[in-house]
Amino acid sequence: MTTDELLASGGPVEGLKILDFSHVFAGPFCTRTLADLGADVVHVENRSRDTGDRYRAAYQHRNKRSISLDLKNEAGQAVATRLASVADVIVENFSSSVMGRLNLDYQTLCSTNPRLVYISLSGYGHTGPLSSWLSMNMNLQAYTGLMLTTGSEGDPPTAISNSWNDYIGGLHGVIAILQALADRADSGVGRHIDLSQFECSVATLGALLMASAVSGQPPKRSGNRSSSAAPQGVYPCAGRDEWVALSIETDAEWCALAAALGVPALARDERFSTAVGRLRHHDELDATIVEFTRARSTAEVERAFQQAGVPAERLRRVADVVRSADSGLAYRPLPGDRDETVLAASLPFAFSHSAVAAVEAPCELGEHSSEVLRDWLGMNDGEIDALERARALV
What we know:
394 residues, formyl-coa transferase, domain 3, 2 domains, three-stranded antiparallel sheet, 16 helices, 14% strand
């Protein structure tokens, strides 16, 4: 089956109904991923107020449908409850008390839909002493300790860019939902998933957590260097702000680097014959590497190192990556405004016997209100008109 044929099919979770109450990033990224896998994701929004959903233009709502409901209106809440009664999954990432105040919490909804899988992706979870805290990506990176593990010693605290916690929380949300659906296939019963983005981020610290627990000391901020690979770093090349990155993990790679540098005798030097020795003499090795790289372009250095069997790549700007032909499935073309075509991030994997969904443009706010009510609830035009008069649809 060709790529085009795969993309034309509905995806591995086609037919799954997801009611999406989420906003901003973590929740919308979670549901966008499921939409890319073929789920029918209906995003609940409110046209009459600022939802704070600043990432619509970033294509977090592509492949979804949008319904605009007033959830503070009794009739609007009733519509949301009816949609929840036929949904497979509900996703929300509000503060812990919001959905309860709207009578849309799991305990309320599971009584009429016991098969419902309901996930709450809050910053600090719905239980415990931090459940009422508000969270943002920067704050979470600070509170997890992550900002004091990145950068080099002496640097100010350094954040990972691009909403790290939202991506990590959203991906863990997808995994949790798929597991709950698999369990439901056996038990016939759904469940509530209480996901803490804080805990997701702490879990990714991995070996740093273990090392700190054993030593009682904070992790060393090593910048671009490694505790086991040497030499490792980014090295300046000819031109303005041009660099190449390399990392040597094995003795064989070290011998290959020495040959590529034109000084094979380095490989026989006892000071550098082991990883421990190379770590101890890292500064000396860096000086030798810079002498080689600074006189050559990034393309020349990359080619020389790669041909020798050295793990090395030139540093590219994001714009270079977007323009390149080697991004594979990471990006797909998407119709934009004024008949232009833009690139949108896609699911970076492919299945051999099924497809991810084709990439469609982000929905307009409230674009599918009537369509969703007909498809999910079987409503007719008169019933929909009555909801509009009751200001349930806004």
